[in-house]
From TrEMBL:
PANTHER family for this protein: SLL1072 PROTEIN, SLR1083 PROTEIN
Top-level taxonomy: Bacteria, Bacillati, Cyanobacteriota, Cyanophyceae, Coleofasciculales
InterPro entries: Nuclease_put_TT1808, Restrct_endonuc-II-like, Uma2
Annotated source species: Moorena bouillonii PNG
Pfam family name, one: Uma2
Domain Putative restriction endonuclease: residue ranges: 29-196
UniProt protein name: Putative restriction endonuclease domain-containing protein
């Protein structure tokens, strides 16, 4: 005979791939598993992260962070996050590989809630789709579009493909590279990407292209009209328009 419920300590079930949960129950179980590094709720279904391989996942992830991190350094009012929990709606709590957002004090569309999580849609989300292309290009894409993520980047490493979707009139439109092989963000002026160089792991060219974007008139105007002015430190401006990790 089992002991009465009142005499037993209630333990939460562990998260499992494919569980159908509310966002509240998902969060309770996730928080009860501190060893777990990545789990997502997409359309009410739990997806568990797997161990990361270096070449198809970890290294491309780092290259995206180098590119976006340098843009963030040069652009006041912009914030960058690595694998943050994002509370999008009652059925969706993804943990994107990378987010780039405009600070809420500068007019951004998301905010940090009382628990320190992102609430609402970041302006830009990027995913490395080495092994989850179907999720990233189907379910997640639909969720991000519905919630108003303005730009969605999906790098399919094994397939050597990079998709950049721009939210226009309620739907995603694919941005294509121009004659110079560059895609230019519609939301973040000066965020330029030499796509072929990124796929070829030519990070010098990636950074040279970004440097040109940061020197553009549109990026300078974007910085000038930032909703919140930022004061430079005594050692010089934190937001000087020069790359920190690469200088020509």
């Amino acid at each position: 005979m089992s002991a009465p419920t009142s005499n037993r300590q209630r333990t939460l079930p562990v998260l499992e791939n494919g569980d159908l949960l509310s966002r509240g129950e998902f969060e309770r179980r996730y928080q009860a598993m501190p060893h777990l590094k990545k789990a997502e709720l997409i359309e009410g279904i739990v997806y568990m992260g797997s161990s990361l391989r270096f070449e198809p996942q970890a290294e491309p992830h780092a290259n995206l962070l180098v590119w976006l991190g340098n843009y963030k350094i040069a652009t006041p009012g912009v914030r960058l996050g690595d694998n943050p929990t994002v509370r999008l709606d009652l059925d969706n709590e993804p943990q994107p590989d990378v987010v780039l957002l405009i600070d809420s004090n500068c007019g951004g569309q998301s905010r940090l809630d009382d628990d320190g999580y992102i609430e609402g849609a970041p302006e830009l989300v990027a995913e490395i789709a080495a092994s989850t292309a179907s999720i990233d290009l189907r379910d997640k894409k639909r969720v991000y579009r519905r919630n108003g993520v303005k730009e969605y980047l999906v790098w399919q490493v094994i397939d050597q493909r990079f998709d950049w979707f721009s939210w226009q009139d309620g739907d995603y439109v694919s941005l294509v590279a121009d004659q110079e092989g560059i895609i230019r963000s519609q939301i973040f002026p000066g965020l330029w990407l030499a796509v072929s160089a990124l796929l070829a792991e030519d990070m010098v060219k990636v950074m040279t292209t970004l440097q040109a974007g940061l020197a553009s008139k549109e990026h300078q105007e974007f910085c000038k009209h930032s909703a919140v002015s930022r004061q430079p430190s005594a050692k010089g401006s934190r937001y000087a328009h020069k790359l920190i990790l690469f200088q020509s």
